[in-house]
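ok trying again, last paste got cut off:
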Amino acid sequence: MGGDRPGKTAEEPIEDGSEETLESLRAEIESLRAERDELEERSQRATADYQNLRRRSQTEGEERLRRALQPFLKQLLIVLDYLDLALARPATTEESRSLAQGVSLTREQLVQILEQEGVRPIPPSDRFDPALHEATATVPSDAVPPGGIVDIVRPGYTWRGEVLRHTQVIVAGSPGETAAKAEE
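nice, full thing came through this time. structure:
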């Protein structure tokens, strides 16, 4: 390495070369530095593009999975509704109590599976929220203020932070308002 010799600096001419050779070497070094910088910049862009592609592919894959699973989960909620209906009937005989116990165990297992997949019941509320509830009827009520929830017809559920199925509710209306709607 010529620059490592004592007493010589990079600016001093090389003893066995001419000034033109030195200028040629300097130009070549600059050219190589520019090429290195360009390749480094390309590499950084390629890395960023690859990371963006990976992120986009992951997001698209999750979206496809969500679109595929959502209808299936909604169907499982209907099965859960049927199990709840079966358990709502009073068990009067030993056979019906045994059957109810089996239905209850099946229901618990289904709820557990749904929870593992991130399906959560919408918590009960006193006020109607159109983002979470679907009003199936409006009834006059002295006990519940207008816009309040009188009864839950069918529970609602969320999945991955979005409403999977709205809670179906009966909403209280003012006595005069519901009477006018009934006449129409």
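cool. Residues 1-5 have pLDDT under 50 and may be disordered. Helices lie at 19-88, 94-116, 175-183.
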